[in-house]
Specification:
With 88 residues, the chain is mostly helical. It has helices at 3-26, 32-52, 56-87. The chain has three helices and no strands.
């Protein structure tokens, strides 16, 4: 992958993370699936960029950003299951 493409992918990742942060800030009760999915996508895009333009500190940050997003998605999925079970 060339550096220009890596930078474009990294910028898309940045847009995703900024969007997710703005979304969470703008909504009183943001949809966790939207928030965490977009954060995970952003972390993945930035990781691709960082594999070409390596920066260890940023790569570690993206690892934890992705891990927290996955944790948030799992929690949201489990909570949705609990709500469906309670409604039945």
């Amino acid at each position: 992958m060339n550096e220009t493409l890596a930078n474009v992918i990294g910028l898309l990742g940045t847009v995703c993370i900024i969007f997710a942060y703005g979304y969470a800030t703008a909504h009183r009760a943001p949809n966790p699936f939207v928030q965490h999915s977009v954060n995970l996508l952003g972390a993945a895009f930035l990781t691709v960029s960082l594999l070409v333009n390596f920066n260890l500190a940023s790569l570690v940050l993206e690892f934890f950003w992705a891990a927290i997003a996955i944790w948030g998605l799992v929690r949201a999925w489990l909570e949705r299951g609990r709500r469906r079970g309670a409604a039945a």
